[in-house]
Amino acid sequence: MDGLLLFGRYALAPNVYQYCGPHDSVALREVLHAYAARGSSASDALTRELRELFFHFEAAIPYLQLIAHANGIADVFAARVVEAYWIGNALLRRVPAQQLCRLLEERFRPSMNREDWRSCQTALEVLDAKPVHCFHVFEIYRRVGLLRSRQKKGDVLGTMDNCRISWGTLKDFLWTGGQPSGATVEYTPLTMTDSGTVDFGSPVIRVCQLSDPAHLTARRGDTVALHWGFVCDVLSRRQRESIERWTRHHFTLLQSVPRS
């Protein structure tokens, strides 16, 4: 898939809620859908406009740049680089820990207290953390963003569960005016066990929106990726296995979620 389109499908959801990205989420959606409609025939001007809008995602772009640089890839929006960041692939293994540490120190250490930064260093040195989105959610976002506050346990887990890229089975579509406007998806949310550790809970049915309803070729029974309640993309078996593997790899970071 086109890397710009792939990035947009995952980035659109948090931008709709104004968590990150350009302030005008309507403009981003319109430009993204116009680009998707034109495909390989998209004009240079439209492509430049979309790229410029994506550079407003100030948290994601440095990770993309790091992954691309470590793998000798010139375009930060190359499809494999984008896939590596959102759901994980082999490119992550080529990113040296010291380079990720340098990025985090430059961008996020000023917003962390000493204990948080020490935990982050442990994640890098001991747990072999990688610049995949779930690492940012589990370790960085909850320490320097909204999640490092005195929220209740359920709020912390709920926000992380929404923000991580999760996966599930598309059960059915919701229709408005003869067009699909949403979908029901069975997925497994995060939960906190009685012992205070984080794990996957029991499967639930969730009503979701579609990030690109005109061009998302999903069918009932497909495995799909979810982000902030939006269906982002159809996952292949390889992608499904990869996202679960990288999520579980970084699960240890969640065991220090503050308890209420």
Explain this structure to me?
There is one protein chain. Mean pLDDT is 88; it is low at 146-154. With 260 residues, the chain is of the alpha+beta class. It has helices at residues 3-16, 25-38, 44-54, 60-70, 79-86, 97-107, 114-125, 133-144, 153-163, 237-249; strands spanning 166-176, 179-187, 190-192, 198-200, 204-210, 223-227, 230-234. Helix 1 (3-16) runs antiparallel to helix 2 (25-38), helix 1 packs across helix 3 (44-54) and helix 2 (25-38) runs antiparallel to helix 3 (44-54). It has two domains: 3-148, no CATH class; 153-256, SH3 type barrels (Roll).
Descriptive tags:
260 residues, 5-stranded mixed beta barrel, single chain, two-stranded antiparallel sheet, SH3 type barrels, 45% helix, 2 domains
Describe, in short, the structure shown.
By secondary structure, the protein is an alpha+beta fold. It folds into two domains: 3-148, no CATH class; 153-256, SH3 type barrels (Roll).
End-to-end Cα distance, whole Å, is 43 Å
Total beta strands? 7
C-alpha Rg (nearest Å): 18 Å
| Strand order, largest beta sheet | 1-2-5-7-6
Helical amount: 40-55%
What is the percentage of strand-forming residues?
A: 15-25%
Structural class: alpha+beta
Shape: globular
Number of domains: 2
Please report the number of helical segments.
10
Largest sheet: 5 strands, mixed, barrel
Low-confidence runs (pLDDT<50, min 5 residues)?
A: 146-154
The overall average pLDDT, rounded, is: 88
SSE order, one letter for each helix or strand: HHHHHHHHHEEEEEEEH
